[in-house]
Design goal:
By secondary structure, the protein is mainly α. The chain contains 13 helices and 2 strands. It is found in: Cell membrane.
Length: 292
């Protein structure tokens, strides 16, 4: 009895915390799932009304949902590709011994520690058509000025540039930590065999680094798909809904139109999409030799 108690005493201490966390995670999901089957405007006068799968049917038939879904994946996929390529390149550069590397690593963290809304407001000024630095730079190069956030075709690339500037350092810092764990023996053997820099990167660095990169991509992709604050602070989904992602659509549906049942259905569909993407990335990491 004593041995069994000694082996399982850890569960006595962590069970209350696990139950609390499980409740805090499970209850909002359950409540949102239940609310998605109702029509409710959060009014005390008109009670909630059971509509079954009508919210989901309306969602799948509506063009607004598919447009917002496309904008979400467009923003997330292009951003994550650019951030990963630039982040890995910066990590490899900074992993070499060079003067001022520590200072540059510290400076890289500055965009991440600033609040997203403050970053958004700074870039709102940069993209300002009349006095913004972006157009001033184009004038110096004798290039025609752009509308940036005011253009239907340019608003999403402009937001992607903002996100890449702010979050590429995160990928770089995680990758630098991964590079530090790679042993030196494979490089020494490759040098003896006459492998050049590109061959060492392709056959040693990249394969050994991929689990770390996939981990960084997974963490960043989850955050990217949930991006709200920077887009809302700069464009609020405009112009003409050209930058309205699912997060902004859900916010507008719930707190501007007060269609909480429909907004809950959107949330549940978005939650399922997030789970599928995370599972796919975890499976990829496992296949590349990461977690079991």
């Amino acid at each position: 009895m004593t041995n069994w108690f000694d082996r399982n005493i850890k569960w006595v201490f962590i069970t209350p915390a696990l139950l609390f966390i499980a409740f805090m995670v499970a209850y909002p999901i359950f409540y949102t799932a239940r609310l998605s089957f109702f029509e409710w405007s959060m009014s005390a006068v008109s009670p909630s009304k059971w509509v079954g799968f009508d919210n989901y049917t309306t969602l799948l038939k509506g063009k607004d949902f598919w447009h917002a879904l496309w904008m979400t994946f467009y923003h997330s996929s292009v951003s994550i590709v650019l951030e990963t390529v630039l982040g890995v390149a910066i990590a490899i550069l900074f992993s070499r011994k060079m003067a001022g590397a520590k200072a540059m690593k510290t400076m890289m963290m500055l965009p991440m520690v600033a609040t997203p809304v403050s970053i958004a407001l700074v870039w709102l000024l940069i993209y300002e058509p009349s006095i913004g630095l972006a157009n001033e730079f184009l004038k110096m190069l004798d290039i025609e000025t752009q509308e940036w956030l005011g253009s239907v075709t340019q608003v999403m690339p402009s937001l992607i540039i903002l996100d890449v500037w702010q979050w590429t350092p995160m990928i770089a810092l995680i990758t630098i930590a991964g590079i530090a764990t790679i042993p030196a023996d494979p490089y020494e053997s490759a040098s003896v065999d006459g492998a050049n820099i590109w061959q060492r990167f392709r056959h040693i660095t990249l394969p050994l680094l991929m689990p770390t990169v996939i981990t960084a991509v997974t963490l960043r992709m989850i955050d990217l798909l949930k991006t709200f604050d920077t887009i809302y602070a700069t464009t609020q989904g405009g112009p003409n809904f050209a930058s309205q992602t699912l997060n902004l659509m859900i916010f507008d549906t719930a707190f501007s139109r007060f269609q909480f049942g429909y907004a809950s259905a959107l949330l549940m569909v978005f939650f399922i999409i997030l789970i599928v993407i995370v599972l796919l990335l975890m499976a990829l990491r496992k296949r590349l030799g990461g977690i079991e």
